[in-house]
Each structure stands twice: as structure tokens, then as C-alpha cells.
Amino acid sequence: RHELTDGDALLDACLAGCGLAQLPTWLAGEALRCGALAQVLRPLSGAVMPIHVLWQKTWHLQPRVRVAVEALAELAAKRTDIFDPAASGT
């Protein structure tokens, strides 16, 4: 029995055949799509957790905040399979 607190380490352990894990879609999605991992116990999967971006309202939005928000919005629009489990079919 192992307990890992790092998602990437948990994914690597699963890919190495060390057992089952509950992983977020955004982390395990590629391994599921290419067949390296298979989804089991689907009825027991966790709840969908929406992503929210919050920032303090100011007259000038810091460029790094704007870049992060725009990158998330672009990724969400392009990769619905990551952010919307119903869209991926996994």
C-alpha cells in the first residue's frame, strides 16, 4: 500500500502498473485517450470541480494576471475534454 501526495508521481505509478488511483481528468486525460490507462469504477468517480478565476478589481489589471486568465480561457475553449468530462466521453 502506498500513499502519494503528488499527482504526477501518482500518475507515473499507475502508468508503471502499481495499481489504481483516482486522478483528475486534466492530469490523466492524455493517458486515457492513448490507452495507457483505463477508467474503472466509473460510478464511484469524484464530483466535477469547476475552475474559477478570481482577482481583485483594480483600474489596472496586472499583465501576469491577464496572461494567466487568457491562457485558461483559451485552453478551456480548445480542450473541452479537460475541463468538461461530459465532452470527453471518459
Given helix and strand content, the structural type is mainly alpha
Helicity level = 40-55%
Task: State the major sheet.
Answer: none
Low-confidence stretches: none
C-alpha-based Rg, rounded? 16 Å
Number of helices: 5
Instruction: Name the shape in a single word.
Output: elongated
The CA-CA distance between the termini, in Å, is 27 Å
Order of helices and strands: HHHHH
Task: Tell me, rounded to a whole number, the average pLDDT.
Answer: 83
Detailed description of the structure:
- With 90 residues, the protein is mostly helical.
- Helix content is 47%, strand content 0%.
- The protein contains five helices and no strands.
- It has helices at 7-15, 25-33, 63-78, 80-83, 85-88.
- It is elongated.
- The two termini are 27 Å apart.
- The model has no long low-confidence stretch (mean pLDDT 83).
SSE layout:
Elements: H1 7-15, H2 25-33, H3 63-78, H4 80-83, H5 85-88
Outline:
The chain has helices at residues 7-15, 25-33, 63-78, 80-83, 85-88.
Note the main attributes of this structure:
mainly alpha, 5 helices
